[in-house]
């Protein structure tokens, strides 16, 4: 869950980075994001944010997650949606609603893949400035 919390910190930046650049603002990205959240009370939706992060991450950096998902649910196409459902299953103890059959190696792939995804994004936005 700690790795997922690091993903959550990216939700705003992936939506507002392009806007920040287009407006050629003199304020840094971090202050811009804080102002958007505090002044407008805007927060991106979790599911769509995770899907966007997943879709915008180069495949090299999510291959381990993709492999785990393919091994678990071979016919699935939307990996970001699946990952969000897994997160909800854990956080909200909703295993009754949807079962996830994961082996130890699948968990290892998901953890490793999430670390790779985070390294890509945090290297792209060091300090969000």
Strand and helix map with partners:
Blueprint: H1 2-8, H2 11-23, H3 29-40, H4 46-56, H5 63-72, H6 79-91, H7 104-124
The overall strand count is 0
Please describe the biggest sheet, giving its number of strands, its sense, and whether it closes into a barrel: none
Radius of gyration: 16 Å
Q: Which bin fits the share of residues in helices?
A: 55-70%
**Which oligomeric form is depicted?**
single chain
Give unreliable regions as ranges.
none
Strand content: under 5%
SS-derived structural category: mainly alpha
What is the molecular shape? elongated
- The overall pLDDT average reads 85
Q: What is the CA-CA span between the terminal residues?
A: 26 Å
The ordered string of helix (H) and strand (E) elements is HHHHHHH
Summed up, the helix count is 7
């Amino acid at each position: 869950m700690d790795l997922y919390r690091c993903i959550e910190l990216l939700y705003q930046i992936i939506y507002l980075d392009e806007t920040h650049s287009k407006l050629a603002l003199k304020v840094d990205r971090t202050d811009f994001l804080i102002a958007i959240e505090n002044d407008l009370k805007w927060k991106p939706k979790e599911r769509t944010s995770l899907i966007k992060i997943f879709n915008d991450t180069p495949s090299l950096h999510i291959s381990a997650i993709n492999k785990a998902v393919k091994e678990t649910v071979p016919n699935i196409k939307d990996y970001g949606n699946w990952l969000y459902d897994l997160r909800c299953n854990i956080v909200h103890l909703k295993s009754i609603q949807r079962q996830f059959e994961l082996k130890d190696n699948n968990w290892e792939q998901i953890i490793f893949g999430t670390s790779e995804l985070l390294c890509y994004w945090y290297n792209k936005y060091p300090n969000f400035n």
